[in-house]
Amino acid sequence: EAQVTQNPRYLITVTGKKLTVTCSQNMNHEYMSWYRQDPGLGLRQIYYSMNVEVTDKGDVPEGYKVSRKEKRNFPLILESPSPNQTSLYFCATRGQIFYGYTFGSGTRLTVV
Amino acid sequence: QKEVEQDPGPLSVPEGAIVSLNCTYSNSAFQYFMWYRQYSRKGPELLMYTYSSGNKEDGRFTAQVDKSSKYISLFIRDSQPSDSATYLCAKRHSGGSNYKLTFGKGTLLTVNP
Question: A67, B39, B55, B88: most buried by Cβ count inside 10 Å?
Answer without folding.
Answer: B88
